Sequence to fold (187 residues):
Amino acid sequence: MVNKVNTCVFISGNGSNLKSIIKSSREYNFPIKIGLIISNKTNARGIYYAKKYSIPYKIFSNLNQKDFERKSICEIKKRKIKFLCLAGFLSILSDSFIKTFGFNIINIHPSLLPKYKGLNTHKRAIENKEKFAGCTVHYVSTKLDSGKIILQKKVKIKKKDTAISLKKKILKKEHQLYPAAIRKIFS
Fold:
């Protein structure tokens, strides 16, 4: 059996990228196994995948950031997690958390970084009449959406595209890109 890296995934929403990572992690040669899922939202639909695939999960909602991070670090250490994926995690981790974790943290962002850091990326790309948009998997650093880029995927913005239609196109690319980036990191 391949020696897989014990990984935690942080989520806040639907969990479609989580589902993509879970499916890939079930492949024999995929470099990670998901040992824990943590959500900061009780209504995160991604928890469904944790239950469906029998992956341990914790929900730490209604906490201030310091308490959320403290409880998360406790669980991560208890379960000997060595790698962290942010997949639709709608919160910014503190410098202290990033340093305390001590291992690689990666994130997926719905733009071609370094353009359009932060929120409303699809709307901003359309308003600025960009020809292309896309998604980026990058290492998490102490500066928002500024860590070293691992992989990117582009999509063409069509004249008829709206923020919603562009989001759907990019999300499909994210589902391919995230597992590819994980493979690249450990190859």
In short: The domain at 109-187 is CATH 3.40.50.170 (Rossmann fold).
